[in-house]
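Deliverable D4.2, example record:
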Amino acid sequence: MITYNRKDLKGILSKIKTIAIVGASPRADRDSYLVMEALINFGYEIFPVNPLFAGSEILGRPCYPNLKDIKEKVDMVDIFRSEEFIFDHTKEAIEINAEVLWIQEGLSVPNAANLARNASMVVVMDECPKKILEN
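Output generated by the structure prediction step:
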């Protein structure tokens, strides 16, 4: 498993412009909402992804049912889903040619990470981009 120090993670995030948040929630008490809000404030273009809220807006951004429905280039896919869904989201991230797969704090999914790395993606697991950018 590849691990990155804070400087490396900030370097990865400095090259990113667009981020899809898979598992985005309109609830202000959810981690995905708080991270999405922070990333917007840091200047990233954000695409919330959640089939339950597709067609509505989260933090003023249109919500998509899946990654493939986003027409713009997505640099990074940040996943806020439980482990059993991450492998399938990783396959979809590869299909849309995302460069970075970011799996949120508390989650480590080696089979998804290996799949993404074999597709030449940068993989970050068990980290929070909001915390990296704020420190």
